[in-house]
Amino acid sequence: MKEKRVAVVTGSGKGIGRGVAEVLADQGYTVLLVARNSERLEKTSKEINSSGGNSEPWPCDITDRPAVAKLIESVKKHHGQIDVLVNMAGLMPFPSPLHEMSDDLWDDLINTNLTGTYNVTKAVLPVMLERKYGRIINISSVSALKTVANFVAYAAAKGALHAFTTSLAQEVTSKGITVNCVAPGFTETEEMHRIWGTLAEQSGITEDEMLSGFWAQIPIGRWIQPGEIAKTVAYLASEDTAVVSGQILVVDGGYDSHA
Questions:
Q1: Active-site pick, 29, 118, 133, 154
Q2: Is 154 a catalytic residue?
Q3: What CATH number has the domain spanning 6-188+225-251?
Q4: Which residue of 204, 212, 250, 258 is 20 to 30 Å from 220, comparing CA positions?
């Protein structure tokens, strides 16, 4: 990197978001960690900084539009720029048939997984447009491409992120801002273990036993690690990707292509 670069990463207290924050910090970015849980953000920031990175915790609920606007205004005041935005914050629900889903759960999923991305991106765009430079990377899911039963709200929100990405790319790529999306496959996070562990318990088997059958459906045959997703994000965040925009990069170990 030739000069200071500032990256805002939402949902960066754990899982893929944390992995992205660690990789970007390792590459020399000043990484601003955004999530609801301030305690977790403080811990993550201290660990990144103790490893030689430069990060700052900026607690915020991305579904709170005025709070997001205030956050980005403060970031601009303190740093003067935002070069990279990674929209990772999201909710992963337990599988549920649509007719049994509560309206509140639907609203939470759409507000966090889709409207939250809108809130942050809309606030950040003027900062990037002013400098005629930016990298926006949205995180969706392979579930938007290879849908399964009982994840209607999640798949709908993540699928909408694909249209959000490609349409916004048409608006701003000519202005020096690229917009892309990474669609992870089955990545090892706390949420995924929680879901698979519960499903296994309901079936009277262990999580490993349930997963062993599932891995047979995926060519890579294992969990994807958050750091592996993060490296793809870091590629899209680099200065060398000015010609890559409006793309959905699937990082799923071959799951979506497996017949």
A1: 154
A2: yes
A3: 3.40.50.720
A4: 204
